[in-house]
Each structure stands twice: as structure tokens, then as C-alpha cells.
Amino acid sequence: MTSIPATRAAISALKLEERVERDVKAGIPEIDRDSHTESEESLRSYVVREIIGKVHENRQTELDEQVEARNEVGIRQIYQDIRNTETVIGKRVASRFSVLAQDLKRTARELSSTRADLEIFKHRNGLTRDAVFRSSKVLHYSVIFLIVIFETALNSFFLSKGSELGLVGGFFQAFILSLVNLGLAAFAAIALRNCFHRNVLRKLASFSVLAGIGALAVAFVLGVGHYREALELNPFIASKLAMMNLWGDPLGIHDFNSWTMVIVSAIALILLTAKFFVVDDRYPGYTEITRRAKDLQSRWNGICADAIDEINEVAERTQQELSEKEKEIRSQFIQFKGSIERSEEIRCHYEEDIVKAQGLLDELIRYYQSHSARMMNRRAAYFGELLRFELDKLPKLNTTGLEQHKKDLSVFDEILQVLDETYAESIGAINRKCEAVQGELSALVGSIERDNGLGGM
């Protein structure tokens, strides 16, 4: 502020040389005067207004920004949240425990009811063995899919010669035949399974249906062979010729490729029927109710295990939040303390700015005296001392928030001294609550199993 450029700028802004010329013409300054002129006093007003005033505004703005930033610090609230951890974990665990208890009770009732239905089913149908079925249907259906595709691929080659679209047409015809085979196999497996039913009438009806499906399957397989043979004779009336030959002479197939198609279709039909039959227990309805009971049993076991994990997750999440709050307190304390130090620096800089402004004023007065002396061709006027600022009239920085925050800093410092201990106590409270709830959960599971007759699972 006391540099030459700053002084030159002030001289230019004040039009100091013109002011001196005006004062000299008016007879000012006199020799050995002991009071300041109006021009000299105006220099002080200029520095106070244009220099110190702007500096004060900038410093006050910086100071207010620091105060505003410190006002956003929530160390007290975060610390109180850490102290209230035991209450928070208690509410969270109680809420989750209530939901888990309802799920456990509902699942236990469903499992108990399904197990009762299974026992009634076994007693009603005279079953003393466990159901035998494939636990996974993915592999089962994969094999069925491969059989269908393999049959389609083979038959499409034989049917392509009589199709107008060639291999593509043969493929679609073969695929339709494979789907019919698939449907016959599914119905045959259902009928065969019902042949093992305890009810005699149902068993006889199933035998009749199975015989009918078998006859239809034989007719269909032989019809495929006749159709293949008729394609080579006349593709346009192949279906009609196939039906006539099937009705007149079922085994009258003379083409080797046609017999190959019959054998392929028959083998595929038998394999598909076997796959549909073995996927479930041979006794009808036994697989469905057993599978439902096993699924509910697995669900019960899973929900019992997941209940403990969910309580642990609640505790872990609360511990994570607690750790983040502890770090946040330390971070905010560092920022708060640094902000106070920055505010002190701003206040010190403002005091330094006033000293620099006084130096600038001294230089302006000296320039005024020197220039007037040169114009009057005599020594500079002497008036005792240079102008000084009246410090009590200078603008003051508003440091109300700073003083209050200094008091807060001492409180925050005390909080940090006991923060580790409070944090350890809160972690201990979480662990104790978690262990207690796990014990209650184990007791609840045992009670539910006894009430629903699930103790022997």
C-alpha cells in the first residue's frame, strides 16, 4: 500500500498538484503555521474513505465468510448423536426384530400346514416311503429339448426330398411331427403315473387311456413312415395316400428310409415318455406336495439363518454410521479451528493495513509540503507533526461471531478429549444389543418350532 504506484495513484486521484497550486494562490500554506489546512485534512478523509474503507469492506467480507462457515459446524449435534447410539440401535433392532418375527411365524404356519397335508396325503394313499423325483428340472428339460432337436434333424433329412422347399420345408415338417410326439409322450407319462394310483377305478381308467394313447402313438409312428413313402410317389396327395396305406396295410412300408423314420420316431417317443415319467414320483400328486414341503423347509431354514444376518447387518450399518460421525467430528474440529486462526489473521492484516494507510497518508502530506515549497521557492511549511488517524473513528471489524466461536472452540476441544471414550462406549452398546437380540431371536425360533410342531425337522 505504501509503494510508489499506490502513492502515485492517490496523488492522481486527489489532483494533489492542482490543489497545492490553488492553496498557494490563496496564500496557503503560511510559514511556520501550526495547524493543518483544509487540503491536508481532505487527504486524511480520502485515505480513510477510499483506502481504509475499501480494505475494511473486503476484510469484513472475508471475516463474515469465515463466521458463516463456522456456523454450519454441527459438532455438538453429531456428538449427541454418538451418545444416543444405544437408543438408536435399540429402535432399529426392535423394528427389524418385529418384522422378522412376523415372517418367521408366517413361514412356520405355512410349513406346518404343508407338512400336515403331506402326512394326510401319505396316510390316505398308503404311502410309507419318501417321494422319488428329480430335484432340478433344468437338466430334465434340457435332455427333452435335445431329443426333440435330434429327432427333428434326422427326420428333416428324410422329408426334405419330397418337400417343395427342400431341407427347410423338411425341417418344419419334422419339427411339427416332433411336437406331436412330445405331446403324446407327455400324456402317456401322465396316464402311466396314474396307473399306480391306489384307487382301482382311477387305475383302470388310466390303463384304458394309456392303451388308447399307445395305439394312437403306434398309428402316428407308422403314419409318419407311410407319409415319407408317399412323398416320393406324389408329394401333392402324400397325406391322402399315407392315410389310405395306413388303414389298408399298416405295416406295408417298403422304403428303407421310411422305416428308419418310423424307428427314429418310435425311439424318440419312448425316450420322451420315460423322461416325463421319471422326472416326478410314480405316484400321482406325491411330487407336488413333497416339493412344496421341501421348498418351505428350505425357506424356513434360510429365513432362520438370514434373521441372524439381518440383525448383524443392522449392527454393522450402525457401527459404520458411528465411525463416519466420529471422523466428521474430527474433520469439522480441524476446519473450525483453522477458520478461527484465519479470522485472527484477517484481523491482524487489517491492523497492518491501517499502519500502511498511515504511511501512505504521511507520503501524501510530504508531497503536498514539498510541492508547495517548490512553488513558493522556500522551505516547506512546518506545522508540528504530520496528520495521524484518529483510531477511535476508524471503521471497526465486527468480530462478535469470532469471540463466540473462540468460546465454542474450548468446548469442542473438551469433546475431542472424551470422543474416543464415548465412541468405544457406543460400539460396546451396539455389540451388547446385537448379542441380546440374537439370543432373543434364537429363543423365538425355538418357541415357534415347538408351537407349530417343527422341532423334529
List keywords for this structure.
457 residues; mainly alpha; 12 helices; 80% helix; 0% strand; elongated
How would you describe what is shown here?
The chain is mainly α and 457 residues long. Helices cover 80% and strands 0% of the residues. It has 2 domains: 4-82 and 326-452, no CATH class; 134-279, no CATH class.
Structural class: mainly alpha
Strand content: under 5%
Write down the overall mean pLDDT: 81
Low-confidence stretches: none
Largest sheet: none
Total beta-strand segments: 0
Rg from alpha-carbon coordinates:
51 Å
Number of domains: 2
Identify the overall geometry: elongated
What separation lies between the terminal Cα atoms? Answer: 90 Å
Assign a percent range to the helix content: over 70%
Task: Give the number of helices.
Answer: 12
Short structural summary:
By secondary structure, the protein is an all-alpha fold. The chain has helices at residues 4-14, 16-25, 38-71, 75-83, 85-124, 138-159, 167-194, 200-233, 238-248, 256-278, 286-376, 400-452.
Produce the secondary structure layout:
Elements: H1 4-14, H2 16-25, H3 38-71, H4 75-83, H5 85-124, H6 138-159, H7 167-194, H8 200-233, H9 238-248, H10 256-278, H11 286-376, H12 400-452
